[in-house]
From TrEMBL:
NCBIfam families: PRK05170.1-5, PRK05170.2-5. It comes from the Bacteria. Belongs to the UPF0260 family. This is UPF0260 protein SAMN05421759_101383. Pfam families: CxxCxxCC (PF03692). It comes from Roseivivax lentus.
Length: 157
């Protein structure tokens, strides 16, 4: 999988169908990310209704061309609020995670989609399926906070 920035080599076939999330090792856990980039978009949450709207305003570290975090390993030096998904924190974040997010799907007992790089064998398949946000974001430093609602989008899925 040479086009894949996430190392998915050497993993047991279909491990996600046989192992609960809480039993996965670090490599398996990281490999679940499909690279859609949707969790790097800013959301608007209505405190009264709980409704979460997605905007196309991306985190300042998001690289729109690669659909990746530009500083993933050191991101917390720049974006301390960036969440760390883990088996322990998944429950509290599941409500706002994108509908197609592999962590959310498995948390809900659902299968992964065929375009997931673990199944397709290619990182590009998430973009070809129209599920990612590559090429459709604006950086948050170009949009005032109070203008985010002008950039609300339907989740690509
Ligand atoms: S939404 Fe889920 S699958 Fe998509 S980039 Fe974020 S963590 Fe990965
Ligand atoms: S710091 Fe990186 S991983 Fe975290 S939201 Fe921003 S772009 Fe995404």
């Amino acid at each position: 999988m040479s086009d894949d920035p996430i190392d998915r080599d050497g993993l047991s076939p279909r491990f996600w169908e046989r192992k609960p999330l809480s039993k996965m090792n670090a490599a398996e856990w990281e490999a679940l990310c499909d690279g859609c980039g949707k969790c790097c978009l800013n959301k608007l949450e209505d405190e009264e209704t709980g409704q979460v709207d997605l905007t196309r305003v991306a985190c300042r570290l998001f690289d729109d061309a690669t659909c990746r975090c530009a500083q993933y390993d050191t991101r917390h030096s720049f974006v301390p609020e960036c969440i760390v998904l883990s088996p322990e924190t998944l429950e509290q974040h599941a409500y706002w995670l994108p509908r197609t997010c592999a962590y959310r799907l498995l948390h809900l007992g659902r299968p992964l989609y065929d375009w997931h790089p673990l199944i397709s064998g290619r990182a590009e398949s998430v973009h070809e399926a129209g599920v990612s946000v590559r090429g459709m974001t604006v950086p948050e430093f170009e949009v005032d906070d109070d203008a985010w609602e002008d950039h609300i989008i339907d989740e690509p899925h």
